[in-house]
Amino acid sequence: MIPNSDLTALALTMIGEARGEGLEGMQDVGHTIMNRVAHPSWRGTTVLDVCLKPWQYSCWNENDPNRGYLNSLPDTDQLYQQASDIAESLFDGEIIDRTNGATYYYRIGSPEPKWAIGQTPCFTSGHHVFFKDIA
């Protein structure tokens, strides 16, 4: 499905970025999105803008195989329903931010991004390392 609302964008991005990390991993990625929205900048001012900003969440990059998966995911899919529930809870402030305010992360085992070199992670979970205060 194509993200056309904040809720859909948040749910799909969490799936595209962290479905292999379980529900907590998806929550962690969701928090990075919500933390970016809470501090509007060049990354966007709405969840939809932040999620779809080019080269920010790789699942939306043109060449990423997750994009095709997400675009064809029906709204009746069980994982999408779970992600939607998480998204609603994030919007309602019902889930504690385990990431300590992270706005960035990368997957362990992938090349270290330039922005992460010399930076101290604020949280690590599963295969993701999280950061905040990245200029």
Describe the protein in words.
- By secondary structure, this protein is mainly α.
- The chain has one domain.
- The protein has helices at 6-18, 22-38, 47-52, 65-72, 78-91, and strands at 104-107, 123-125, 128-131.
- Strands 1-3-2 form a three-stranded antiparallel sheet, covered by helices on one side.
- Strand 2 and strand 3 (128-131) form a beta hairpin.
- The radius of gyration is 14 Å and the shape is globular.
Quick description:
This protein has helices at 6-18, 22-38, 47-52, 65-72, 78-91, and strands spanning 104-107, 123-125, 128-131. It contains five helices and three strands, in the order H-H-H-H-H-E-E-E.
Order of helices and strands: HHHHHEEE
Number of helices: 5
Mean pLDDT: 95
Strand order of the largest sheet: 1-3-2
Helix proportion range: 40-55%
Give the CA-based shape: globular
Tally of structural domains: 1
Beta-strand content estimate: 5-15%
Cα Rg: 14 Å
Which key features would you list for this structure?
single chain, 135 residues, mainly alpha, three-stranded antiparallel beta sheet, 3 strands, globular
Secondary-structure map with pairings?
Blueprint (H helix, E strand, L loop, with lengths): L5 H13 L3 H17 L8 H6 L12 H8 L5 H14 L12 E4 L15 E3 L2 E4 L4
Antiparallel strand pairs: 1-3, 2-3
